[in-house]
Amino acid sequence: xxxxxxxxxxxRNSNTFLTxxxxxxxxxxTYYSSEDDLHVxxxxxxxxxxxxxxxxxxxxxxxxxxxxxxxxxxxxxxDPEKPANxxxxxxxxxxxxxxxxLSESARxxxxxxxxxxxxxxxxxxxxxxxxxxxxxxxxFGSTIGLGYLSDKLSYKVVLGWSVLICVIGxxxxxxSDALGLWCMIGSRAVTGFGAGTLSVIRAYTxxxxxxxxxxxxxxxxxxxxxxxFAIMPGVGSAISYIPEFDINGLRFNKYTLPGxxxxxxxxxVLIVFCFFFQNPAPTSSTPSPPPATNRVSSPLNRSGNTSxxxxxxxxxxxxxxxxxxxxTTSGDTNKAKKYLIFGIFLTLNLMVRLVLGVIETLGTPxxxxxxxxxxxxxVEAGFVFxxxxxxxxxxxxxxxxxxxxxxxxxxMIAGLVCLLAGSAFLVGDSVGLARFIIGCGLIWCxxxxxxxxxxxxxxxxxxxxAPQGGWMxxxxxxxxxGRVVGPIISGSLYHNHGQTWTMVxxxxxxxxxxxxxxxxxxxxxxxxxTTAVTGAARF
Length: 539
Hints:
Elements: H1 9-12, H2 58-71, H3 86-108, H4 111-120, H5 125-152, H6 155-174, H7 176-179, H8 181-194, H9 198-208, H10 211-239, E1 245-247, E2 250-252, H11 257-276, E3 293-298, E4 307-314, E5 317-324, H12 331-370, H13 377-405, H14 408-425, H15 432-463, H16 468-497, H17 499-523
Antiparallel strand pairs: 1-2, 3-4, 4-5
């Protein structure tokens, strides 16, 4: 038909036809043959063909309007706005990583000299367990509250005050040589309270990332966290080589220098944080629909059931089909299942951190027991754990690759198996250097990085659009609880029954965590819903 030919009268009447909003009128028009067939489009009819001239009444117009709205493609909303200044966003994330590094370094730098420092001021293995557990007890007391405060206030306010508390706690740690054991335990509790920022940092990371990016960014956090407590012991050992000196009555030696060092570095980071960090823009908590398919309800199904129109995108175009679906699971059941899954993740985090806390507490004493002459072996133990930590960093960086080849659940279970195997290697009162390195290596640099990172990542994904700060506080608190219970129990077992029963305890905890993880296998099984378009299972 020529472009200059007059438009037929039936095309000028908007009530005689309906043009599909998703298709150009030049390619085809949509006609309706009768009021009983309003839902059946007659496609690809020639424009010269006579068209029905029936005028639609009000009821029919309403049905046509509903059909048009049901066939309209609801495209997913765009990704959350990226920061206008990418360099600004990167700078803020680097500052956040510095805060995290110092929070964990408060544990790692003091590790090589912590056990002999406790003995120097009159403690034993039992006191050592309480002193190590005090740090995690302080973190347990703050991590949930700080997480909720980050949801209500701002990341900058919460993190700034936390770093300042760490400065105070580290200063009093160095005063413990003069003030005694209770000062040490109190200073570690205060430092742990200020270092309970992991929930805030994880919430910040969840705030600025999409679920698809979550595992990669959580791996970065895990790497920095691991660097702080697993590699920084080497820095603590290096500091111990600084000659002892006094300044105005303050003693600086291999026991007190780590505390002063951490206080000064925290103060510098606090200044950088206050002047250069900016809070991210707030985002909506409304979950976005799945990008691959869109489902909308249409009341035009004459059978009385709700009909679902599912639209699938592909490179070749769009297909749609209507299939009846029925909701069979009640809201109460789904809610109970959600909290059960959350409980599994919280329990797993507690058990993994408990085993790590045992090695963290007794790693240096067990290494010193290997040698007949343990003089200077505390410093050497710091270098050994630092070297194992370097291997663990490589494992953490490999998680992103492993998550592309394996499921998150498979990687987590592999990590739990390594925890169990490492604990079994360390059973015995004289394990020797080779077994010590293999056992600690399986726990310190393979089992813990794999399981801990994936547990946190899967938990964050399970939260969905729920506020991350408070829930991340809970999982952080359970981890801190594990690091309180583990050192206290292991310190008592080691003092009264030796290394054998201490590591049997770790074997039992690792085995239970492996059994608990199998509950997630049932949760991750695919659930099939009826769909005529794809014929595939939805996970």
